[in-house]
Amino acid sequence: MGLVSLEMEDLEIEIEADQDQDGDQSRNELVTLLAQTEGISPMAVCRLLQAKVFYYSAQWKLCALEILERDRYVCQHCGRFLRELVAQGSYLMVHHIHSPFAMPERAFEPTNLLTLCNCCHINGIHDKP
Ligand SMILES: [Zn+2]
Ligand SMILES: [Zn+2]
Question: How far is the CA of 80 from the centre of ligand 1 (A)?
Fold first, then answer.
């Protein structure tokens, strides 16, 4: 794991989908297949696919780096610095206060973004259902 992990939210499904070659039909087949194999709804699969495209985009990576710089590589919740976190097996990520899928217009807005360590991110910011 690198020093900094860009936030992937709860993305666990890894797929290779070539956007240029796959038409709507093969995308629908993929969604159906993933929904069955993962035991989640097709809508949840679509969200994950959307998340994958978003978090792997060059625009997001650049934006996240700017936020890390802005926050000086310090978790804005517990105040631990990157070097200290890495020594303890943790890392930093950039969190969206409002989900980029609920509010796409704020996806790259600095006031909607926050540097957090993975511990604070999991244990307080995102309440797991
Ligand atoms: Zn923290
Ligand atoms: Zn988050």
Answer: 6
